[in-house]
Amino acid sequence: AATAIGVVLGRAGGIAVAVAIVVSTLGTVGIYTLTAPRMYLAMAERGLFFRAAAVIHPRFRTPARAIVLQSIVAAFLILFWGTFADAISYVVFVDWIFFGLTGAAVYVLRKRHPEWPRPYKTIGYPVTPLLFIGLSAWFVVSTLIEKPVQAIAGLVLLVVGAGVFSFWDRNRATAEPEVR
């Protein structure tokens, strides 16, 4: 991208695009570094994941074991796929499925719960979420066509993950009766 823009807009344009790509990549790394371990932590606290993932580091107050687990998962993905780009395709493919579902949830929740307060209004509603859902669907279909191995692997992992979650949830329900 930087090379192409560099041809059109010159060296400064190419550098600007390269910097934007670096910032975007670091932002993505930051998101996964901050969110995934905290999801492990939250699941472990609710009995839906290994209890060890809920341990908070005494000095830094971070989910240290969950961070180590996420680092191992990330290293495994890169080793398995061989390239960072393929690993990203696999992860981002699944992300976009859920982004699209989140956009669709706007319509579902407005229909099911019209009485709920709406402190944030979606600009351009109902068109804006529909465009977002369409973009999400385009990205998912595009990845299925362009990177079918990564996309199918993402779908397989998603299905396996749903099964594992159901297993943990069922065991939690039988081990810890709900208190009312």
Q: What sort of overall outline do the alpha carbons produce when their principal axes are compared?
A: globular
Rg over C-alpha atoms, rounded to the nearest angstrom: 20 Å
Please state roughly what percent of the residues sit in beta strands, choosing from under 5%, 5-15%, 15-25%, 25-35%, 35-45% or over 45%: under 5%
Q: Mean pLDDT, nearest integer? A: 87
> What is the tally of beta strands?
0
Helix content: over 70%
Low-pLDDT residue intervals, each spanning 5 or more residues: none
Distance between the termini: 57 Å
* Helix-strand topology string: HHHHHH
Count every helix, treating DSSP H or I runs of 4 or more residues as helices: 6
How would a textbook summarize the main sheet? none
Structural class: mainly alpha
What does this structure look like?
The protein has 180 residues and is mostly helical. The protein has helices at residues 2-9, 11-45, 64-81, 84-112, 127-146, 148-175. The mean pLDDT is 87.
Structure in a nutshell:
Helix content is 77%, strand content 0%. The protein has six helices and no strands.
